[in-house]
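Bug #77: duplicate submission created two jobs. Keeping one. Sequence:
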Amino acid sequence: MPLTLATTTPGEPELFASLQGEGPSIGRPSTFLRLSRCNLACQWCDTAYTWRFAGDNRPHRDDLAFERTANQLTLPEEDVAARIAALSPDRLVITGGEPLLQGAALARLCTLLPAMHVEIETNGTVAPHAALDPLVQQFNVSPKLSHSGNAAELALIPERLRAWAADERAYFKFVVADEDDLEEVLELQRQYAIPGDRLFLMAEGRSTAELRGRQGWLADVCLRHGLRFTDRLHIHLWGDTRGT
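Kept job's structure:
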């Protein structure tokens, strides 16, 4: 079964070389592959074009509905592998949407690639496919807090959070907008014994001004609680745009 990708423009897959903008690999040259489809619906999502297609009434603050055929593309794994190999970075970041919804196809893709460091960015609700799991060096897990608009029973699945916390390849990244979000994070850290050196806080924001408005107090929080801080480097460099 082919992979379902997001697009930069109609007919062009969102597959590009850039610097990783967030988390433990921030600043590293990377090849990015953005897949389409998601099982959650964050009201502040900055990639709603991967899931909020015409007819999808899940809430989003922009209240935009995207035309599916212009924003979604299917390609054989062999085609995607060839496009990845043509780019120079040897670190592959697979993002979405929710990439682990396409775990079997991703496993086939990874077996076709040259030796690469593979990172997968996930919302943490889906277990890695058994064939994919050993092929991944790093999981960037971003569980969704209540301010995302997702119900906790859908977004915070105890068995998955326990499994990620026990996996040394998994780094947690929580999107934080205010102090109430911080209390949720600290409770999740306590409940699932998430190590502080694998827990990042990132301000919610799609512009430099929004990010800067929250980062001062968020940096203080990280210092106070022994957590890690991450910026959104790509937003400062290129803005909230596709293919960056």
